[in-house]
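hiii so um. not sure if this is the right channel but i have a protein structure encoded as tokens and i wanna go backwards to a sequence. like what aa goes where. can anyone help
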């Protein structure tokens, strides 16, 4: 089972308040993103909160993403997105259906539209980066 599937097993047993807490905890567990990387170039457009995502190509050919947000739940959402792709090769990321991987969490019915409106843009940034590096 992947980490995302394991997390979903826990997530589906929780009530809505605890789901929020789980997302917040997931965001807290993100590797710290240095402030100098939080620039206009790494800012995800279309999010109600500020979200930054920075790809770090590794020597082994995988991509590691650093991310942060100024809103706790949004930071948890970006952490959830990254669980689907973290430390995979660009080709594996391109081949990953991130939306399908996140579908079991049913975030649109769990969170307000303000919280979820930026998810497609987070996914697009990750996918575009992987496509560029896979070419």
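sure thing!! here u go:
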């Amino acid at each position: 089972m992947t980490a995302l599937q394991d997390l979903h097993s826990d997530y589906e047993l929780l009530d809505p308040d605890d789901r929020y807490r789980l997302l917040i905890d997931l965001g807290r567990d993100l590797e710290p993103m240095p402030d100098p990387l939080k620039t206009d170039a790494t800012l995800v457009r279309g999010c109600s909160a500020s979200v930054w995502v920075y790809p770090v190509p590794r020597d082994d050919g995988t991509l590691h993403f650093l991310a942060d947000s100024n809103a706790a739940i949004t930071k948890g959402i970006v952490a959830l997105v990254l669980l689907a792709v973290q430390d995979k090769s660009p080709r594996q990321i391109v081949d990953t259906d991130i939306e399908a991987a996140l579908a079991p969490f049913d975030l649109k019915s769990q969170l307000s539209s303000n919280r979820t409106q930026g998810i497609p843009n987070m996914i697009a940034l990750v996918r575009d980066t992987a496509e560029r590096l896979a070419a």
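oh and The chain has eight helices and two strands.
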